[in-house]
Amino acid sequence: xxxxxxxxxxxxxxxxxxxxxxxxxxxxxxxxxxxxxxxxxxxxxxxxxxxxxxxxxxxxxxxxxxxxxxxxxxxxxxxxxxxxxxxxxxxxxxxxxxxxxxxxxxxxxxxxxxxxxxxxxxxxxxxxxxxxxxxxxxxxxxxxxxxxxxxxxxxxxxxxxxxxxxxxxxxxxxxxxxxxxxxxxxxxxxxxxxxxxxxxxxxxxxxxxxxxxxxxxxx
Length: 219
Description:
Number of helices: 7
Radius of gyration: 20 Å
Strand order of the largest sheet: 3-2-1-4-5-6-7
Structural class: alpha/beta
Largest sheet: 7 strands, parallel
Number of strands: 9
Order of helices and strands: EHEEHEHEHEHEEHEH
Shape: globular
Distance between the termini: 42 Å
């Protein structure tokens, strides 16, 4: 099968979406499928991924790749990439790695349009969690993969009451809720250890809040 992955963000950028795209592309290539990744992310170094990567392709190059594909999987819905998929007439699958909302705030017209398209035109909406899937139709939950060579159970002694968050520091990850819950635990004088590892646009805001509440250091 000829599988095309449309992911505007891709390696060498580092993030959950980029890692998922790489993991799926590698797996399907190993299973004997022909995989092509279309991305707008440049890479100054040569790609040695084992599958085809089209970086910042022209509209003609994207059109040609989509015409050759049997299916198109869009990693998070992209309004910019949809017209070519429709013109190519290929089955569209969309994977969702975040809610179609503006963080903790009310939905805007772009989010509403994206949700309508996903529910109306996607053959299947692949969701990273049941929480994400509940606002969509024709869904299947496929939890995000991880690199078993990189993430392994630790051999050290476990610390009772320890909490670790690892991820990008953005509003839709629920980090605000985590810190607010930590404040409540602290007010109840419960023993716990909270560590947050990551980076993102909310880093300074979260660091200031945690410092004010004397909760944790963000690394």
